[in-house]
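User: What would this chain look like folded?
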Amino acid sequence: MSNSRLGRRRFLGTAASAAVATVATTSAIPSAVSAAPAASRRREPGGPAAFRWLGTSGWRIDIGAKTVLVDPYLSRFSTGLFTGAFNPATKLTVDATRIAGHPGTPHTILVTHTHWDHYNDVPHIAKQSGARVFGTLTAYHLGLAYGLPTTQLSPVKGGEVLDFGDYTVEVVASLHSRNGSYSMAFPGVRPAVPTKPETIADLPEGDTLAFQVTPRGGPSVFFMGASDFVERNLAGLAPDVAMIAVPNTDASHEYVPRLLAALDRPATVVPVHWDNFETTLTNPPPVTTNDQARLDKFLAAVRDFAPRTQILLPQYLTPYTFA
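Assistant: Here's the prediction, encoded as structure tokens.
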């Protein structure tokens, strides 16, 4: 498969490797089909938060002296997924060299679901940093299987609004994306502590969450790890920024317009989970021909439904701030 250069795409906002890039945003347009109007938020004073894309749906968020990670997957080993030779028996490996330095010293790790490209590196990073891991009950049981203590594991279901002082995290019950057969890879949950996983098939979906992180002083930022959702669960969130997973199929009906309407048309949309995550973190992010087509279709749908929404196509490890 050929890789398409994303450098020719215009990034909205200025990004520099040594400085934080600020993305200009416009006011969100109220949605006519939103289940409920969002309550106006009074922002308290707070320092800027920097957001760095770690590839796939992974993010590092630096909020003052605290760091939050979302789905940090940095080992990026080959399973054959992008070469047409996918092997479900691929051994799980952690590449400490690739991981080193990128996570910082996280205070919190948020896990949307437990497929390998979201969860594989989480136990290692948590052990190295002492971070607390928030995820489904499956994520909790898998953490125990990897030897993490209960003091570092917090199971959540959706509906929780957690206050960490410098930021809050709202947990949203969500759904995993569907493949062309209206199913998914490795479905299932872990209702009890399993043996330590050895292959990628040992890490099931384990139910799916989304998260809204709001640093003190804003902005509110919505994070997805998979391209499906429950519209009713998004009512009232109205994030300023939405990190949205690009769908790989059209199995979810009217994915973009339903999602953007449910989120009250965020001022900024950042597409994620479109890159080839079995390569190193080298810019421009590599993308297969098929995934480039899916990304282009997604971008066109956003522009069509929410023309005033800014789109930021991120580069790896580049710090961004949002007004």
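Confidence is low (pLDDT under 50) at residues 1-42. If you want, I can go into more detail on any region.
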